[in-house]
Amino acid sequence: MALITVKDLALGYESRTIAENLNFKVEAGDYLCIVGENGSGKTTLMKTLLELKAPMSGEVIRGEGLKANEVGYLPQQTVVQRDFPASVQEIVLSGCQSRCGLRPFYNKEEKEIAQKNMERMGISDLAGRCYRELSGGQQQRVLLARALCATRKILLLDEPVSGLDPNATIGMYRLIKELNEEGITIIMISHDVSAALRYASHILHVGNDLFFGTKEQFLKSEIGKSILITEDNDK
């Protein structure tokens, strides 16, 4: 059974529909990239998958025993969040909160999980540093380590390279791809279709024209060809 199955989903605010007729499945090990124009409902869809927002209609079905608190989430950063005055270790460890239940402290296992994920992201040497003193690329690695503390199965990433310089962007994409190759399912929102086609296994395009399929199918589709021609003309 798929990790996530979306059936006849409609998204919106109050009486205004911004996306509808969404149907797709995410299997374990997939790397799904969600693309589409600004305002097409990409972030709203992600919040719905996270059960942070209710759909207008349709349903999201979790399979393989996947629980809401077993999903790692990396949202878009705000200016306020970038200036958060906590240590790297404190932020990464906070990703274990869903494991604590009513317990008001982190146990040995949770601290080991945080340490392991800092090592995976190459930020162990930053553990005692203040988060707001880090570069944008370092901050994203911290937040990715935090998200990994919540899951061994699936990560949802909303524009994870937004605002990063080219080198940090390449490094972040490589890290995400390595995590996928280790068996973690990825669902990522991106405005960069070229990067999506380079790294993803599947593409979901939301907006006036809907598409879901493998990246090979996307390349052969009318919408895929149209987007790539537009990108080429913009270069």
Shape: globular
The helix/strand series, from N terminus to C terminus, equals EEEHEEHHHHHEHEHEEHH
The overall pLDDT, averaged over residues, is 90
Broad CATH class of the largest domain: Alpha Beta
Strand content range: 15-25%
Q: How is the main sheet built? A: 6 strands, mixed
Note down, in words, how this protein is organized.
With 235 residues, the protein is α/β, with parallel strands linked by helices. It has 2 domains: 1-66 and 153-235, P-loop containing nucleotide triphosphate hydrolases (Rossmann fold); 79-152, no CATH class. Helix content is 38%, strand content 24%. The chain contains 10 helices and 9 strands. The strands form 2 sheets. It has a 6-stranded mixed β-sheet with strand order 5-6-7-3-8-9, with helices on both faces. The chain has a 3-stranded antiparallel β-sheet with strand order 2-1-4, covered by helices on one side. Helix 5 (108-120) crosses helix 6 and helix 6 (136-148) packs parallel to helix 7 (166-181). The protein is globular. The termini are far apart.
